[in-house]
Each structure stands twice: as C-alpha cells, then as structure tokens.
Amino acid sequence: MDLFFIHEKKDLILMGNTGVGKSYLAKCFAYAATQSSIKTLFTTAIDMINHLVAAKADHSLVKKLQYYQRPDLIEVWRRSVSKPPLFPMAFIIVLICNLANVSWSQPPESSKPIKIIISNWTSQIALSKIIGKIYIKMGYNIEYQKVSISNQWGLLSRGLADVQVEVWEGTMTKMFEKLTTEGKVVSAGTHDAKTREEWWYPAYVEKVCPGLPDWKALKRCYKLFINPKTAPKGMYLGGPWEKPDMVRIRALNMNFLVIRASNGDELGKNLDKAIKEKSPIVIFNWTPNWVEVHFNS
Q: Is 3.30.70.1660 the CATH number for 196-294?
C-alpha cells in the first residue's frame, strides 16, 4: 500500500456513503503505517474534540496538542453525515490553538510588522485574516494592506509587503513566475485545487438558447441578455478583477458589453435575483467556488 501522502506531509480525506468501506480502508492505511514503523494514532473526531475541550478546561491544552503532534499519521474517523469535512484536521488543530489562546513557545524574530496583502475576493480575505491571527498568536505584529493585483508585485519584490496567500494562475502567473525566477519573491507552496475561470450561466438558459454551451449559440442569443445598461447589446456581468473579457468579446465579434460588479458579493446578489426570476444571465465564475454547489449550471 502506497503511503506517499505521509512522507509528503499531505492530508488524505476519504469520503463516501455509508457502507462503502471508508473505515476499513482507513484501518488498512493505519496497519500498513505501523508495519512500516510509522507512529500512528487512530481516533474519532468527537473524541479528539472532547479531549481538546477538556484539556482547555483543565489548562493542559498545550500538552494535549503536543500529544496529537507526535504521530506521523493521525487517522480521524467520522461518522457519515450529510456534509463532508471541508478542512484538513491539521488546519482545524491550528484554529483550535488560535481560539484557545495558546501561547507559542518561540519568541518572534522581529517586532517589525508582517505586512499581509488584502485582495478583493472573499477566499483571499478570509485566508489572510486567518494567517494574520496565527502570526499574532505567535507573537508577531501584523499589518494588512489593501492592494490591487497589478500593484502587489512591486511591493512584494521591494520588501514593502511580505505575504500574499493566494496567487491565481489565470491572472498572476506571468509576474509570479518572473519574480520567483529572479529570486525577488519566494513561493511557499502550491495548492492542489484545480482552478478554472469561465463564462457561466444557469442551466435553464439552455432551454431558451438552443446550442449552448457552444459560444456560437451564445453569440446568436445575445438579445436574451439585453439590459438597460447595455442595450442594444447583451450584458456579460464580470467581476472587479483584471480579466480579458472585452478582448475575448471583440475577438469573437460577440454583441455583448461587460458590466463589472464592484465585488464578489455583488456578483452573487445579481445571480440570486436572476435565478429567482428565471431570467437569462451570463456571468464570470471560477472554480473552486460555491456557485455550482447551490445552482444547476
């Protein structure tokens, strides 16, 4: 049995319906790990949480966290529920450590604030705030900087900003690779999530625009998307981010205009409104994102 994820320090999440063999497979991994002299702990999610809560109450949380850090493999069994876990257990432990006001043992190397870039999309903001809390708990001073995508590279390369937690391949690859190659920016790692950026429409639009998802069908059906702001052309609702939407429209000779939402929340509100009214809409969307979980598209 291949235990590569242990040696590469990656999380492995087993998901599936009741009775498909998740627990059995997890025990096989645990057995294989012990046979390879890998320190292994097999526990349940509820036991782990109860232990940590109890440890907080009797002021032994640091000792209990060290207990969970000793094994090379921790298998956390969870009963089948309607929604699968979204975060790796290592990340959950860090959050528990934050919320519990645990003092980290090593003093910070500097009192100079760590400058964390804040961008204009939700996941980046949330992750930046989380990592900021972690730095504070470790004793560091932090400073958040709201910076545009285009302006962030100069700040990072000159040491005027320190951390950007999300670099999206669709818009930032060129500068990111240039500055990492030049040694001006350090890559802290790559996320395994597969990203995609797209023009997105609700599934019901296909009933009134035959031929979708072929872009030529969308070109023919532009009148369905006419909006008072764009008449006599159709409206494509984009985000505030730097995307080549108008270049694509001109290249394909599509009768559309781009209206940019001021933020991701505005995109969501327009989408909710259109779906409630069953009105045609085409918007900028990206994966991973919540949209396709909630709406058929």
A: no
